[in-house]
Design goal:
The structure is a homodimer. By secondary structure, chain A is an alpha/beta fold. Chain A is built from 13 helices and twelve strands. In chain A, helix 1 packs across helix 3. Chain A binds a DNA duplex through helix 2 and helix 4.
Amino acid sequence: MPKRISIVDVAREAGVAISSVSAALNGGPGVSEATRARVRETADRMGWVPSVRGRSLSSKRTRALGLVVQRQAGVLEADPFFAGFIGGVESVLEPAGYALLLQIGRTPEAGADRLRRLGLSGAVDGVFLTDVSVDDPRFPLLDHLHLPAVAVNAPGSMWVSSVTQDHRSGLRDLMEQLISIGHRDIAHVAGTAGLVHSEERASVWRSVLESHGLPLGPVIRGDFTTEAGVRAADTLLGGPRVPTAVVCANDLMAIGFLSRAKALGVRVPDDVSVTGFDGVLLGAHVHPPLTTVMTSPVALGTRAAEVLLASIDGGPRVDETIAPAAVVDRASVAPPRGRAA
Amino acid sequence: MPKRISIVDVAREAGVAISSVSAALNGGPGVSEATRARVRETADRMGWVPSVRGRSLSSKRTRALGLVVQRQAGVLEADPFFAGFIGGVESVLEPAGYALLLQIGRTPEAGADRLRRLGLSGAVDGVFLTDVSVDDPRFPLLDHLHLPAVAVNAPGSMWVSSVTQDHRSGLRDLMEQLISIGHRDIAHVAGTAGLVHSEERASVWRSVLESHGLPLGPVIRGDFTTEAGVRAADTLLGGPRVPTAVVCANDLMAIGFLSRAKALGVRVPDDVSVTGFDGVLLGAHVHPPLTTVMTSPVALGTRAAEVLLASIDGGPRVDETIAPAAVVDRASVAPPRGRAA
DNA sequence: CGATGAAACCGAAACGTTTCGGTAGGGGGA
DNA sequence: TCCCCCTACCGAAACGTTTCGGTTTCATCG
């Protein structure tokens, strides 16, 4: 077992004090360029990489950020958000020398508990908050822990910074478009109750209909899974009065709806128009290709990571916004029957 | 700034030595039950959680496991494997008190480098190896670092433990099925060159055809993306001799193929049968629903985590196997034209 | 030429835990 | 009664870094 080489070995080899090695490698002051170069060369030659254990204990910085995913296992698989988000996060963490600590809390309570331990144990320097609910208990918790955090798609939390993509305008555009081509009977397949993005989408749907003096079509409560979309199709298409358009709170439910509609012999978009939300890759490859609102999880991750790192370095609390989600027109939308454009 | 409470505070409060607090909480010997209970109660009351920083420095254990994902950003999004795998891993790690450190190496070289730093810096106690290539350079690296590891779906690496799901038998069954209903002209849309699971699937396709004395249909080299499936459809369906069945190395490519086939007016399964591999959720909701081989990323993650934890605790090198991937019959397969069952 | 100050470098404390050798105290055997 | 041993507990070293106060060196200026 070859003893792990440490900073003392490098110091001895380079003929300087331990503190000088530290200063040299971290760009600190009080080190001549000649010494710095020599130390750097020695460290490289010996293949020394600072121990994150020693470093984190001493510097009170772990150089790791936490992400506690609060989702049921099933949803995670086809989830369009996290893969992209994590990719974006990593792209800024890597050059900054940070790592991402991932945990999964199957329930909100479990998630909050893991978050608490994460903070108390000092395992991370900051955390990302996703799937924020209204009055999320994690906010006061983080405040209590003095743990830097950034909330994703939950602006103005008053406690922590946030990075948000406007989802309202895109969905509003989509609704207006539907109405402009003649739809009057527009149903909504909603997401999990209590989540801010579920409520937000439902509220846009409602407000646009109201602003046009149109009746509120039926609302089916879903949970963002494909299965929920299937069930919604059963309910909506089997009902007495079939809407001419169905606005789903995400793509997965829309795809489930599409699938079930086809099985029931209901043609999309001829008999009913269907829209999604998110812009998953596969949405372009189902039939008909899904008209949706394209979100940007990667950009969200990138910006969130930047904000969080700045926040750790003592930056002020900020509320950032990235380019809004925009409508992507594909083929699952058409004028209602008997009113062809 | 309320000073972080540490083990000394607990020791003072409980009226015992620091070492006794440690022993009491970690179940060590030399502590009476009465004292243990009192210490535990005191710690709980004060809300003390051991600092992972101090602990990891002292114990030479980080209680974190590393996963370096080597994939281009685009593939990650729709990827059916990682979400499930990570879910499975976490389900084991959480009760064990371990965390998962996630990193993304966009290229194999970058991935190997991140792995190297991860090991040298002592940031993790062990790592998961996925997307293993033949002669993967990470094996000798890990050996050099003395870092426990478990290879996923890459059995018999000689260097490290492995957990594997048999993918061959399922695909073989699928091929036999195709042949038994009359297909003689079977093409293959392969995955990224060099990856063991790409080569494995190609080799099953080849060997089954050979064992039946059938000609090897064309092979299109893909890269596991939906787009590659689209391109494969263009090539295969536009060629002079259209195969009667196309076996894709994964579902995403199969879905891309399906999508493009429909656009070209080629009917599936009437004109051509298409099969996938993986068993992504959405495969059941495309049209026609995709016949595929169902893999189990969650089970793989669960078992891999168990093996890795055991390996860290000094367990022997093992090669585990979980239940093989099995065919899921859906509607994208039918007898070739003019030979209806 | 001596005082002054800055730059370069050093030594040691501190971070919070685990671990290990050591000590007091009490019960049991001879 | 004496000795031994075991249990319960304590104190201090060790882990590998950063940080901070202190010391040397040397050029500059009066």
